[in-house]
From TrEMBL:
It is found in: Membrane. The keyword Membrane applies. Gene3D superfamilies: Spore Coat Polysaccharide Biosynthesis Protein SpsA, Chain A. The lineage of its organism: Bacteria, Pseudomonadati, Pseudomonadota, Gammaproteobacteria, Alteromonadales. This is Glycosyltransferase family 2 protein. The chain crosses the membrane at residues 242-262, 274-300. It is a multi-pass membrane protein. Keywords: Glycosyltransferase, Membrane, Transferase, Transmembrane, Transmembrane helix. InterPro entries: Glyco_trans_2-like, Glycosyltransferase_2, Nucleotide-diphossugar_trans. Its main location: membrane. Residues 18-179 form the Glycosyltransferase 2-like domain.
Amino acid sequence: MPYLSPHRSLQTNEICLSIIIPMFNEAEMIESLVARLETILCSLADTAEIVFVDDGSTDTTWDKVCGISLTHGECQCIKLSRNFGKEAAMSAGLEQARGLAVIMLDADLQDPPELIPQMLSVWREGYDMVNMKRRQRLGETWFKRFSAKCFYRLMNWVSDSSVPDNVGDFRLMSRQVVDSINAMPERNRFMKGLFCWPGFKQKTLLFDRDPRFVGKTKWNYAKLFGLAMDGITSFSFKPLRLATWCGVITALSSFAYGGWVISKTLFFGETVAGYPSIMVVQLGLAGIQLLALGLIGEYLGRVFVEVKQRPLYLIEEVSHQVQKNQDPFP
Ligand code: UDP
Ligand code: MG
């Protein structure tokens, strides 16, 4: 059973669009973010809500978010009890969102909110998932672009359900997709993979991703490596099969080499060969064994996390703001 938070009872009245925004120390972004979102929400005829998820910020994000009063649309603010990471914050948002269409948006304005009406019109055409593909990655180093490219290649090679490259978390999902994702019980939540798993009718739109508006990225290479490992190990056991094949090939080669050494000694009477060749074989084999062991450890660690069945996140506080003339709990 997926973890259902006690605040689920808010989910009664129907809303057309939910915009989920995970936030970690984004206090300086809030004003410009809300200003841009308000302009968009005003231009929409549909009912909309913004779901802010404060992922354990240590700055004034929570106070600022609670002080927001929208002229159009509602606002749900969810404070997690500590920093659980973006994947958990997005899961919290997805469980709380009430909209028939749900859009995931970063707080740093890298994903332009001006594209929301276009995404909604694609959803109205009957698509369940509107993927937003980055035409180019502005403001990112060549190493980040290169490592992202390698990751998507590797991910799509090892995994059964394909993760489109350069499609981030910015996307629109129908209620059906959101409900399927909420029903997934796993604790290792590589969201880019989970978003793709349900399938349904998909359309991809191209957009230019802006550089971060203010502040610095919350990801470092160690965190990104962890996310990549989560993605690969939770969507495929091909790496384990690869380790088996490496073992089989190495064992066969050593048998062949052993046979050759024995026959050479028997037929030509050669004495002990050199020390370097023994060391090379020895180190090579030890390396492959350690790699395979590490790989098994990666999977075992994830099984360990799954069997503990801990909740994905804990909610400390929820604040719900509606337009001034509406009752928050009808
Ligand atoms: N974020 C979060 N929890 C974290 C790290 C990031 O909720 O532990 C949020 C962050 O506030 C932002 C979004 O995830 O709204 C994307 O983060 P960031 O811009 O740092 O990532 P990047 O765009 O560099 O991938
Ligand atoms: Mg960003």
